[in-house]
Amino acid sequence: MYPLNTWYVAARSHEIGSTRPLGRHICNKPMAFFRQASGQVAAVEDFCPHRGAPLSLGFVQGDTLVCGYHGLAMGGDGKTASMPCQRVRGFPAIASYPVHEAHGFVWVWPGHPSQADVALIPQFEWLGNPAFGYGGGLYHIGCDYRLMIDNLMDLTHETYVHSNSIGQKEIDEAPCQTRVAGDHVITERYMEGIEAPPFWQMALRLNGLPDDRPVDRWQICHFTPPSHVMIEVGVALAGNGGYHAPDAVKAASWVVDFITPETATSMHYFWGMARRFKPTDPELTEKIREGQGKIFAEDLEMLERQQKNLSAHPERKLLMLNIDAGGVQSRKVIDRWLAAEQGVVA
Amino acid sequence: MYPLNTWYVAARSHEIGSTRPLGRHICNKPMAFFRQASGQVAAVEDFCPHRGAPLSLGFVQGDTLVCGYHGLAMGGDGKTASMPCQRVRGFPAIASYPVHEAHGFVWVWPGHPSQADVALIPQFEWLGNPAFGYGGGLYHIGCDYRLMIDNLMDLTHETYVHSNSIGQKEIDEAPCQTRVAGDHVITERYMEGIEAPPFWQMALRLNGLPDDRPVDRWQICHFTPPSHVMIEVGVALAGNGGYHAPDAVKAASWVVDFITPETATSMHYFWGMARRFKPTDPELTEKIREGQGKIFAEDLEMLERQQKNLSAHPERKLLMLNIDAGGVQSRKVIDRWLAAEQGVVA
Amino acid sequence: MYPLNTWYVAARSHEIGSTRPLGRHICNKPMAFFRQASGQVAAVEDFCPHRGAPLSLGFVQGDTLVCGYHGLAMGGDGKTASMPCQRVRGFPAIASYPVHEAHGFVWVWPGHPSQADVALIPQFEWLGNPAFGYGGGLYHIGCDYRLMIDNLMDLTHETYVHSNSIGQKEIDEAPCQTRVAGDHVITERYMEGIEAPPFWQMALRLNGLPDDRPVDRWQICHFTPPSHVMIEVGVALAGNGGYHAPDAVKAASWVVDFITPETATSMHYFWGMARRFKPTDPELTEKIREGQGKIFAEDLEMLERQQKNLSAHPERKLLMLNIDAGGVQSRKVIDRWLAAEQGVVA
């Protein structure tokens, strides 16, 4: 299923304002996220100990989340702070979840709180790096989060699902290679002297480069557990060293994919792009975000229908071809984590 | 769950015309209500004995409800009266339900018909009383009917759910008292010298009284089984005796709540207000009805989300605070009725 | 339930273009239909052997259906034809289904392919006959396909469900007769000297006949297994021999009903009308199609609500009156087929 003793992206910072909480299921746990007066985000079980109302329908007051039904004020630690005309000391606590906010993302640890270590939150080159411009969005998709990992670790699907934007026949035809380094899975593919597809033509133009010249193109997919897929993508004018070409003749980005299980068959998909060119141009950020949003939306129907097919036929063995190696290896890492977690629990 | 051997409000009179029946589930029983030529309302199982079609898709003819599929004419007693070109004597009967109509409401008895006694239908001061003006509506809500009883027997929720209309901080802060007299549960709260909230300011103005003067306010919730909650509410210009003040200096009403189980987790909520001022002013009735409708709609999301939380966690014990005493005592009465009913059955 | 070793109408020819496949469940089997370069329609399981994606989201290339996820090209025989950069010889096959296309309809055999014999596809007088003009449509209905057979083999429902178009009191009052000839069930009803109902008045006018004269009317319902109901309907100016009257004084048609199970409680309803007058007038075809579509849509709510009632009360015995004889006898034929099929399987 999914590891619990790990950090997941739960929200983007702007989703949690200073007065209204955010209700969201993470790993099948209903959580209410709220921003305390101190500015810190807290996460508690979305269940008022008084009468079971969802706390996410309430409002923030100081460091507490006030239930919108009868006014119980819940602390960020899951203990009732106060309630009008009530002594609350004996009230049962609800679960609270370790939260960490950094660089626009809110991370949550749905497992044993005692094991939550902020140092375990992954660092990425682009995250909080002023050399990069970032834009992104959130999709809710009705499929097992691992189908999205498969999707992203096998980009041959671009040729079919995204044939009008980033797909091109050469992806299909270029061999890809997968290697594993500890818990890190890398699948890479390089294409040389090809025509840039529409999305990359746009990126070249935006970057002040000609869009009609042959390019070298690369896709380097990095999986790190539990479910982060960062993809180095880009094109360089052909013959300048491709991936290693100087910035002046290429357009390069990280595709950002934080994949957070909601239930066994649904997920929150935080997608985005961190580009290494014109990082401080907000119009460019918006333009790319809009383009990427349309392209990434093309996967939704496929993934949800694939999930339906698999749910109807749990007995079927799927093929594991060379192009699937990235997903297969990523699932092996997840399975190791799950086994370790069950060992811990047992 | 819910008692069956009792009267519930099934419909408002105008919902059952002279030609079209009304299909409605009451206590998980599908019923077709129709108005016979005599003017009397009858209720039969919504299941044609011919081929199982819902009789509520048919039409009324004389004292029968004609099935809209093949023309079987069903009597109000659940016996087939006729069918074109058929001898119907041997047709199996379907269930019929005792019905009583009075003062604009249609009551139904979903239990053993032999025990249905019209004298058991509760009488209320305002019901059919020309000194009162009445207006109301119907909401369908996806929650156990008892969650609505809890809601109405603990009006501290007004401070939170209805903060812009009838809620105010003083409700929360004023202690309430609950007492039980046989099957009758009463929770009352009195506030003195407070500012009238917006809804009551409107009522004072409509009643020709100033809306900016301190008032005494009262809420006296009466539960009677199986699920009727009548609430005496009002404000009087402060210092005139509050609840006991003369009519000339107050605005007072009964909040009317007939709560009828549809299934274990859904209900029909017949809400209304019977006011003791300007009883014959139809514009005022409509104005109040519209205002009340908006306020009472604010409870729906809370109740349905509370139900989802409780359904997901049936093992959780909820708190029973002093403010919950009204609901707790009301549920005790219901439980007594249920136990008695099972004794009868056994 | 439903026989599998038989032909069902799966689609109308125009639903399956030359580039896009059609996904449809037939007898609870998800199928992807596609038109090969040769023009032939093929049907395969809607499940890509690579990763379980629905093939019906793909596109046609030559004689294959290309999966829209990663480009696997599936042959009409359920064997993978090719995939970019892959050796596909060892890929597991998926199911394929015998298909036959004729006169605008695509038939499919969901059972054992070895038993599929095109000679078993029924022939109807009107099918592919230039003396007839045909128009029709498709409705998806949430009920057991046998409820639609019952519906069509007992046209007394027209008096009630279709009271404004083809229904009239005389249907109800005229006795019907049912006879069985092998697997063929016939229910017929004749009415003499009656007023034509609105639909038939229109047909008379369109046929150049007066619409205000008494007519003789007939309805001859033919059931053939598994679920085809063809109904001879028409009116003739009274006293000319009714059903046997010469063409010049009558308006006569076949009502066409191909009923295809989707699941145990849903079906595809291919309805239409094959008329024996002005067969080549496309405006007339469209006018009749539109009228019939509205009339036949009136059955949907009744059938779906009937199904809900029956699903809630599987223990209830329904009545089997003389008017139900057509449906009862048709179900006996189906039951015989089902028993024979299970014998074959066992």
From TrEMBL, chains A, B, C:
It comes from the Bacteria. The keyword Oxidoreductase applies. InterPro entries: ARHD_Rieske_2Fe_2S (IPR015881), Cholesterol_7-desaturase (IPR050584), Rieske_2Fe-2S (IPR017941), Rieske_2Fe-2S_sf (IPR036922), VanA_C_cat (IPR044043). GO terms for molecular function: 2 iron, 2 sulfur cluster binding; dioxygenase activity; iron ion binding. Residues 7-108 form the Rieske domain. Keywords: 2Fe-2S, Dioxygenase, Iron, Iron-sulfur, Metal-binding, Oxidoreductase. Pfam families: Rieske (PF00355), VanA_C (PF19112). This is Phenylpropionate dioxygenase and related ring-hydroxylating dioxygenase, large terminal subunit.
